[in-house]
Write a structure and sequence with these properties.
This protein has 327 residues and is α+β, with helices and mostly antiparallel strands. 21% of the residues lie in helices and 21% in strands. A hairpin with a 4-residue loop joins strand 1 and strand 2. The radius of gyration is 18 Å and the shape is globular.
């Protein structure tokens, strides 16, 4: 396996990612959209999810494609980021055609970043504006780390962030985009080494390799209170998938969280993976679908490590970033 030219989810032709953030609140929103509506699925494994329009992604539902996917901070407040994206897409004339004008289909998911030291005393919900701004910023190139939905993210011992990665598999491109904000750790015990180290490509998160030993019972106590957390992600491919196949891709991709976060999928995390398929590539047979699922899991594990590796310090942070602690 090798990464795409950008090592971003936008190595998939036609995909763009937009980010917007508020440094004072320590939060933000991220949007993924494509040149055309795309097939999407979803799978939730965390115990505390917050979502919008995910029921519509079941294979038996009427609408089989979406216009965008949104990841946001803000807990339940952050669900309004999708409203800003919806408004922006409608102004572009995009959406499911109905009498009265198109209705953009914009599923979204949120993470909990309300206890990260930012100023949460807003009078009006800021997330609709953040969603609209993220849409307007959408491009093939985008920053990682303390940006977008990863702006206020934390892990058990370090700052979290926004991560992405890609991989080429038998002429098909697979990518991942994640806002990593888990209860657990992305690094091993007290070390700088990442749990995802066995899957690293080209030293993309430091090239330190696996830790020589670890105690899997070690968890920093500062995030063990039931305060939310959550890692939310999108895996994508240019393969032509049905909605059922995209859902299976999302299921397989959750292995990437388990490989890179310890513990993952806790009762306090709303861990969720969307899967997106643009359909510009071939339709894989069942054996190729299995390979794509494995690639998506590896890609997500790498993206999670890159999110933490790329985080940068900001005033008022409650935990250090990886670069501060280990560089």
């Amino acid at each position: 396996m090798k990464p795409g030219p950008r090592n971003l989810i936008t190595d998939i032709k036609g995909l763009r990612v937009g980010n917007a953030q508020d440094a004072a609140i320590k939060t933000g929103a991220t949007v993924l959209l494509a040149d055309q509506p795309f097939v999407a699925g979803v799978h939730v494994m965390g115990g505390a999810p917050g979502t919008r329009e995910t029921d519509l992604l079941a294979p038996d539902k009427l609408v089989q494609e979406v216009d965008a996917l949104v990841l946001s901070g803000g807990s339940a407040f952050g669900l309004d980021a999708a409203s800003g994206v919806t408004d922006g897409l409608r102004s572009m004339g995009r959406g499911f055609p109905v009498p009265g004008g198109p209705v953009p289909i914009v599923p979204g998911a949120i993470l909990f970043d309300l206890a990260n030291g930012g100023d949460k005393s807003w009078a009006d919900n800021p997330y609709k504006a953040l969603g609209r701004a993220a849409l307007e910023n959408a491009a093939e190139a985008f920053d990682l780390g303390s940006t977008g939905a990863g702006t206020g993210a934390t892990t058990a011992n370090l700052k979290g962030g926004l991560g992405s990665a890609s991989v080429l598999v038998d002429g098909i491109t697979v990518g991942a985009l994640v806002a990593a904000n888990p209860l657990g750790q992305v690094t091993v015990d007290h070390s700088a080494n990442f749990w995802a180290a066995p899957f690293e490509l080209n030293g993309e998160f430091g090239g330190l390799g696996p830790a020589l030993r670890h105690d899997t019972g070690y968890i920093q106590p500062n995030k063990m209170a039931p305060q939310g957390n959550t890692t939310i992600a999108i895996v994508a491919t240019d393969a032509a998938l049905t909605q059922a196949q995209a859902t299976r891709l999302a299921v397989a991709a959750h292995d990437g969280m388990a490989r890179s976060i310890v513990p993952s999928h806790s009762p306090f995390d709303g861990d969720l993976v969307f899967a997106a398929a643009t359909g510009t590539g071939p339709a894989p047979d069942v054996f190729a679908q299995a390979k794509l699922g494995h690639a998506a899991a590896c890609c997500l594990a790498r993206a999670i490590a890159r999110a933490v590796f790329s985080a940068r310090p900001a005033p008022g942070d409650l935990v250090p970033c990886w670069a501060e602690k280990f560089s």
